[in-house]
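The data layer described in this paper is built around a simple, fixed record for each protein. We quote a single record here, exactly as it is kept in our systems:
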Amino acid sequence: MNQGGEIKQWIDSGCNWQQGAAIYEKYGTNRTLKKFFAGKQTRFYQDKLYSELLNIKVSAEHDLVITPPDVKSKAVAFEELPDKLQRLDKEKSILFMQILKARKQLKLLAKLTYPERQRITMADMLNDMAALDRFKRLKPFNITYVTYSKRTGKGGEVVRFTNCFLKVINRTGSRVLKGPKHYQGSQPDHWKNSTRNFTAHGSGDIKKFHIWLVLEYNGMEVVTSELG
């Protein structure tokens, strides 16, 4: 087993202190850290051990990457596409610009303004709220969005929630699975409807938001792209 695989196995098995110290003794290069890791376990050195081994794992995996040769593909001009695809592409572009315009109007109505650097894309937001920390626990987040119910057709209220957690649907509760298989049986089709369930304020009450109506995430403006 290579360095990356051994460290991954250590992380997956719960980051045992003695095992981690032995792995660093094997692959690490800092003699001072080896001395500290061989001593008494503390929270600071536990975090330091995890960080150092993770860096070794990333470096080992990077060394294994083989750059593929350039693949040349022939681009198809828009005019050469079938009429149906041309029509769908134009409709998609129109709908996307309408969404951008609506989101800008909502932010103006809610009086939400941010410096350019305080931005996060919608994709990065969704990845971040579903990411697990090193203890395989979901991280809390704050969110601001506009309410809307497709069933009743009502909404339009700007709401803010703090200390939120993405709702874990799988039975073990150990992690959030990504992809359609995460929502099976009688569970709502979040991927089709562009929605997510979550709990807020440390309570067990389940709430739902539409990803296209999220305006703010952890104090950052949520944008769909460079266009806003």
